[in-house]
Amino acid sequence: MTTPELAGYLACVLLAGYVQNLTGFAFGLVLLGLAGVFHLASIATLTHVVSVLTLTSALMRFRHQRPQVAAATLTPLLGFSLIGVALGAWLLNWLSDQALGTLRLLLGLTIASSAVVSLLPTSQRERLSARWTFGAVGLMGGVLGGMFSTAAPPMVFHLYRQPLALGLVRDTLIVIFAANGAWRLVVMALESRLSWPVLWLSLAAAPLVLAQTYWMARHPSPWPEATVRRVVAVLLVLVGLSLAGPALFS
Fold first, then answer.
1. By the 8 A CB rule, do 112 and 37 touch?
2. Mean pLDDT throughout 93-117?
3. I need a labelling partner for 80 at 20 to 30 A (CA). Which of 6, 115, 144, 183 fits?
4. Nearest to residue 150, comparing CAs of 185, 107, 116?
5. For the segment 31-70, what is each residue's pLDDT rounded down to a tens digit?
6. Contact in structure between 160 and 129 (CB atoms under 8 Å)
């Protein structure tokens, strides 16, 4: 990776971390999308890096405070998402080896559709959804997490509709994403899929992620979360189409 490419990669990391600290999700979507559009690294390498950085950010965030999680939703979400992560990781490995164009197409469509989902109205329910729905959402999110380290879209949409405090939802999501990231790294290590570029890119970005998480925890952003969501959604749609378009027509 050349110096300009490294600078571009670190800029993508900072933007992704900013969005993550504001909303509790979208780190992987932003980093994978932007870095993928500019061909800064392979999709497989970037997804491994996202897992490392997501776990690093979560550990920093909860270093001095215990996360407040929604216990009724955590067990089915986490249990089924771990199963999905293993399935998604297998799909990523197979597509990386056999159909790289299809992988870029799926990533682009995932990013664009996730952005659209984030803009859908999420009227809060009066009571918690049935327990099986959390398992189903966890499995879907886990597959996306295993493939692209982006388990957020189905989980975020479902959890934000529940009658739960926003802080509780955010901490629950971060805990699940961190656990998924750790499990995903274990699965990839067992299959010998972790390489030097993954370690190098993770080490280069980790200090930025840690410093940014520390700073934003003490200096909340003045931007309204709703405004950030809209801007990020538009950006992700453009990025997703930029990835999917060339892959589709090639």
1. no
2. 82
3. 115
4. 107
5. 888 888 888 888 888 888 888 888 887 787 777 677 888 8
6. no
Pairwise CA distance, residues 242 & 199, whole Å: 28
Q: How confident is the model at residue 197 (pLDDT cuts 50, 70, 90)?
A: confident
CA distance 115 to 179: 23
Q: Are 57 and 19 a contacting pair, CB within 8 Å?
A: no
Location of structure tokens 């061909």: 39
Q: What would the pLDDT profile of 156-192 be if each residue is shown by its tens digit?
A: 888 888 888 878 888 888 888 888 888 988 888 887 7
Retrieve residue 205's tokens.
């970005």
Return the structure tokens found at 23: 């909303």
> Is residue 24 very low, low, confident or very high in pLDDT (cuts 50, 70, 90)?
low
Tokens of 126: 């009066």
Question: What does the angle CA 200 – CA 39 – CA 26 come to, to the nearest 5 degrees?
Answer: 75
Q: How far apart are CA 178 and CA 85, in angstroms?
A: 12
Which of these, 32, 51, 53, 52, lies nearest to 42 by C-alpha position?
32
142, two tokens: 């886990």
Our CA angle for 112, 116, 147, nearest 5°, is: 45
What does the alpha-carbon distance between residue 173 and residue 196 come to, in Å, rounded to a whole number? 29
The span from the CA of 68 to the CA of 52, in Å, is 22
pTM (2 d.p.) = 0.81
Token digits of residue 141? 């999110």
User: Which two three-digit tokens encode residue 38?
Assistant: 């500019």
